[in-house]
């Protein structure tokens, strides 16, 4: 499978997801590395085996080995950070923001690829994982680095569509054996 195979697997009720997946991956204003790194990192974040496997296949055709690993690294570090920072924010006690996280995050400082590309992937994964604090932080770094709101929005749309693809296909896989 690939993007095309995932589109074919989406049921009729997910026509919008199918169309968005196709258009976002074929008419992107992001660089190839930004686009496919975002797709891969978000696929990783969805935890959907089929979506990750199929999108990783396409991403491997567009990313260097270093960028492929960095996109996975963005998903991994944000899986940790999104839980921690979302939790400390949701507790509602501002004192937690003054405490050191004491979590290793060296990949953020040395991702092995362009720093803004890595930040974009972290932002997109934070959207999938629903961490407002991380979204704000990564968006600020991206804007300060010169990335336009339109490109940031495109990464957020990719996150939304990859997530919808995973949610739909995983739900259909559960329902299929029951004949529902």
UniProtKB/TrEMBL annotation:
The active site is at 131 (proton donor), 134 (cysteine sulfenic acid (-soh) intermediate). GO terms for molecular function: disulfide oxidoreductase activity; hydroperoxide reductase activity; peroxiredoxin activity. SUPFAM superfamilies: AhpD-like. Keywords: Antioxidant, Disulfide bond, Oxidoreductase, Peroxidase, Redox-active center. It catalyses: N(6)-[(R)-dihydrolipoyl]-L-lysyl-[lipoyl-carrier protein] + a hydroperoxide = N(6)-[(R)-lipoyl]-L-lysyl-[lipoyl-carrier protein] + an alcohol + H2O. Residues 97-175 form the Carboxymuconolactone decarboxylase-like domain. Belongs to the AhpD family. NCBIfam families: ahpD (TIGR00777), ahpD_dom (TIGR00778). This is Alkyl hydroperoxide reductase AhpD.
């Amino acid at each position: 499978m690939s993007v095309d195979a995932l589109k074919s697997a989406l049921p009729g009720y997910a026509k919008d997801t199918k169309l968005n997946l196709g258009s976002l991956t074929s008419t992107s204003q992001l660089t190839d590395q930004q686009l496919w790194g975002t797709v891969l990192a978000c696929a990783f974040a969805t935890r959907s085996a089929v979506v990750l496997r199929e999108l990783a296949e396409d991403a491997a055709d567009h990313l260097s080995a270093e960028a492929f690993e960095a996109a996975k690294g963005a998903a991994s570090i944000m899986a940790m950070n999104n839980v921690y920072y979302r939790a400390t924010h949701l507790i509602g006690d501002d004192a937690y923001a003054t405490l050191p996280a004491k979590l290793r995050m060296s990949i953020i400082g040395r991702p092995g690829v362009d720093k803004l590309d890595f930040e974009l992937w972290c932002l997109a994964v934070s959207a999938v994982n629903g961490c407002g604090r991380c979204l704000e932080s990564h968006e600020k770094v991206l804007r300060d680095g010169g990335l336009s709101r339109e490109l940031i929005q495109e990464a957020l749309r990719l996150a939304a569509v990859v997530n919808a693809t995973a949610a739909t296909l995983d739900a259909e896989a559960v329902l299929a054996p029951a004949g529902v």
